[in-house]
Amino acid sequence: MEGKILLAMFVPGLLVLLFARITYNEVIGLVLTVALIAASAYKGYTHTWPLVIIDAASLTAGFWLSNYWKRSQKKSA
Q1: pLDDT at residue 77 above 70?
Q2: Are 11 and 58 spatial neighbours (Cβ–Cβ below 8 Å)?
Q3: Cβ distance 13 to 36 under 8 Å?
Q4: Angstrom distance (rounded) from CA 53 to CA 38
Q5: Burial of 8 (0-12, 13-18, 19+ CB in 10 A)
Q6: Using only C-alpha atoms, what is the Rg of the chain?
Q7: Lower Cβ count inside 10 Å, N or C end of the chain?
Q8: Burial 26-57 (b: 16+ CB within 10 A, else e)
Q9: Domain residues for 37?
Q10: What is the pTM of this model?
Q11: What is the C-alpha separation between 48 and 41, in angstroms, rounded?
């Protein structure tokens, strides 16, 4: 269970950053990550509500970081 919590803390946020970087759009990155997590929850890999809440917090942090990253790139350009 500790491994799932640790992965739930970091993986969704990193996926948002990765998909936002690949697609050049942070909203599409968020939607792709939510779809991926929804598919894994449907298959039964997310067992408890605390994992869902940690996933949501990580998604929020990743979305915020991708917005911050994009704004900082616009300022330097």
Answers
A1: no
A2: yes
A3: no
A4: 13
A5: buried
A6: 13
A7: C
A8: beebbebbbeebeeeeeeeebeeeebeebbee
A9: 2-76
A10: 0.84
A11: 10
| The residue to which tokens 């998909």 are assigned | 19
* Residue entry with tokens 């992965």: 7
Closest CA relative to residue 17, chosen from 4, 35, 31, 30: 30
DSSP string, the chain: -HHHHHHHHHHHHHHHHHHHHHHT-HHHHHHHHHHHHHHHHHHT---SHHHHHHHHHHHHHHHHHHHHHHHHHHHH-
Structure tokens at 54: 């940690």
Count: domains in the chain: 1
Structure tokens at 21: 């970087």
pLDDT on residue 73: 82
**Alpha carbons 6 and 51: distance in angstroms, whole number:** 10
